[in-house]
Amino acid sequence: MFESIAVYCGFIASVWVFIGVYVASRYYPGYSHTKQFCSELGATGSPTEKLSPLINNYPLGLLFCFFGWHLAQLSNVSVLVNATGWLVIAHGIGTWVAGYFPMDADPYTKTPSFNCKIHTWAGFVMLLSLIIAPILIAISPTTELVTLSFRIFSIFCVIATVCTLVALTKAFKAQNNPGIHQRISYGFQLLWLSVLSFILV
Fold first, then answer.
1. What is the pTM of this model?
2. Distance CA 130, CA 162 (A)
3. What is the pLDDT along the chain (201 residues), one digit of tens a residue?
4. Which residues cross the membrane (predicted)?
5. Cα distances (Å, whole numbers) of residue 134 to 42, 66, 80, 88, 99
6. Which residue pairs from 116-123 have beta carbons closer than 8 angstroms and sit at least 24 positions apart in sequence?
């Protein structure tokens, strides 16, 4: 029964992100989804500093780890598929750490706090894990589980993620609506995770 639930966790986590961020934003007066990062909901001193990790990071980390565990313990698959599971687990752990160590209220501060530095590194692990994971799937052998079409889709998601990350970097430097670029970039990663979840069902 545990495995039958875990296989859906990739999709559930993807839906949870959007719902959780929306709900938390309702308790943050004046919050802008286009101008502000998702992590600003849990930033030090924000109105939702305590709420956001409780409804986002902690349950999401659990869902990612459950799904990653399911991938990591699959038998009769390429070792690259199992390695993908460990990367999803790393994404889940990074989600927990990013929730426990909040970012600074001002994302443009020149002297970030210790908590913000840890938060940033956790975010980097989260980002990198779901960039490498689809690459591993893309180069894994074609099987009934990992079809050629899904391998191509994985490459597309990686390219789309990287392209929107470039746009995010430019928007952040220009302080011009980085929030929307972050959501689009992460959205491609979550889309890939959702499709993988359904393939495994």
1. 0.95
2. 11
3. 667 788 999 999 999 999 999 999 999 999 999 999 999 999 999 999 999 999 999 999 999 999 999 999 999 899 999 999 999 999 999 999 999 999 999 999 999 999 999 999 999 999 999 999 999 999 999 888 889 999 999 999 999 999 999 999 999 999 889 999 999 999 999 999 999 999 998
4. 5-24, 55-72, 79-101, 121-140, 152-172
5. 28, 18, 10, 10, 24
6. 116/44, 119/39, 122/94, 122/95, 122/97, 122/98, 123/39, 123/94, 123/98
Structure tokens at 122: 């956790």
Q: State the Cα–Cα distance between residues 55 and 18, nearest whole angstrom.
A: 11
For 63-87, letters b (16+ CB in 10 Å) and e give bbbbbbbbbbebeebbebbebbbeb
DSSP 53: I
CA dihedral 10, 11, 12, 18 (to 10 degrees): 110
Tokens of 103: 């970012």
Angstrom distance (rounded) from CA 61 to CA 90: 9
Residue 131: which of 103, 156, 110, 106 has the closest Cα?
156
* DSSP H/E element including 178: helix 178-200
Residue 168, judged by CB atoms within 10 A of its CB (0-12, 13-18, 19+), counts as: buried
Q: Could you give the angle at the alpha carbon of 42 between the alpha carbons of 39 and 43, nearest 5°?
A: 85
Whole-angstrom distance between the N-terminal and C-terminal Cα of the chain? 13
Domain ranges of the chain: 2-200
In the numeric block, which tokens belong to residue 61? 């980390």
